[in-house]
Design brief:
By secondary structure, this protein is α+β, with helices and mostly antiparallel strands. Helices cover about 10% and strands about 15% of the residues. A three-stranded antiparallel beta sheet has the order 1-3-2, with no helix packed on it.
Length: about 120
């Protein structure tokens, strides 16, 4: 079974991707390609296309819901690195679920992750 994100891409075409400008500054160790970003404010940059009325990241190579690939996956901003697909780590993620619904896709379920462990609030630590 392949990773569900490879047949999705909804989060990359649903939200503004903003992050500290230094992530696109090579002199400061930033790895995000500067040419794929634009200034949002004095402290933040955004991925081009994600600040639009209908967001879609410039780095997204996808037909949302069929196939998806981030063209800068290894160099993506921290904001993207922090996104967790629902149930990948055992719990639902409201942001993932919302993005999928925005594109007419059903939220992921534990069944999409055969090795996932459901996190229960009252489970012993």
């Amino acid at each position: 079974m392949s990773h569900p994100c490879l047949a999705c891409g909804a989060c990359c075409a649903a939200f503004r991707v903003s992050f500290h400008w230094s992530e696109a500054e090579p002199a400061l160790g930033g790895t995000v390609p500067r040419e794929l970003t634009e200034t949002f404010d004095a402290h933040r940059a955004v991925m081009r296309g994600t600040w639009a009325r209908v967001p879609r990241c410039i780095a997204l190579d996808a037909e949302v819901g069929r196939y998806s690939r981030c063209t800068i996956h290894e160099r993506r901003p921290s904001t993207c690195r922090e996104v967790m697909p629902s149930w990948e780590n055992g719990a639902a993620d409201p942001q993932c679920d919302r993005a999928r619904r925005m594109h007419g896709l059903a939220p992921l379920t534990p069944a999409d992750w055969p090795t996932a462990r459901v996190v229960e609030d009252d489970a012993p630590a």
